[in-house]
């Protein structure tokens, strides 16, 4: 029996294709948000022609630098508490569903046991956004407390997952193209230049700052070291933004730092030294691990994250940007919301912001 969702989608598809023939959709952005939106839109409207326009794809995006752990910060924020929670929940279920497929490893998804420790602050070991979602989220035992540096008083352990964009993005891009979509390397200067599209998704990450003249969008600089350390099996978080996140092929991401409103994309040797020193306090053998790369990225921070429809210069635009340090984790939930707004916008004759 067909589900109600598929009947509704079918009806919508028929109505929309009657209105537009083949709707012409542009997605600005080839990072985790844009690529997820493009694929989910194709899922919903199979006859749409989806074109992803991006200055950079795959390994040149911020998304590619991220370890991709599912651990949204407690300050991650949508327009309301309910919407924030829905985005987080939908994202978790999206990644969980992928984790359960035989292709999970190829898509870059893996389960991950994670510790958060603190010397001073109990509250940083709690996370109201995810505690009810995870199959395990508990205080650490006295024995586990010994895994952290001397003086550590508080800790939690939880079972989460991570999504590596190095695999996820090419996997999704391939599906988009197989379905007739296109990936075009191009900088979009303004929305008016996209007037030939029926609908545009703005998933430009930090690039949205210039496209929308959005002063609420601020870079938060991050730096990480990627090392080969296959013996690390769990993630560790400590005070002063310290983290150790193992991934596929024995590659471990060591971090980190947060430079508010910094546009500096150069590797800083002082940050690197500090990261290595702090991570080695947890696992001393990391000092001898082979360094594969130093990476720097600018997190596109906005509070709240913007998922909104707007008519700009006669072009129907749905924004989906500003995910800060949580964009890999939360891309799916916000993408589901953006796609729904896009489908409604496509059908409507609206001349104002929805
Ligand atoms: C060091 C570091 C570690 C991180 N770790 C994690 C983590 O573990 N978990 C997590 O969930 N998140 C993490 N993040 C955050 C995550 O990387 C971001 O939230 C996420 O990548 C944002 O995705 P995005 O698609 O919005 O942006 P991006 O990946 O930056 O993609 C933006 C896209 O838009 C394109 N673009 C921009 N302007 C234009 C234009 N005018 N015309 C055409 N194309 C344009 C770009 O070329 C690019 O393709 C981390 C970030 C950093 C820096």
UniProtKB/TrEMBL annotation:
It comes from the Eukaryota. This is Uncharacterized protein. The lineage of its organism: Eukaryota, Metazoa, Ecdysozoa, Arthropoda, Hexapoda.
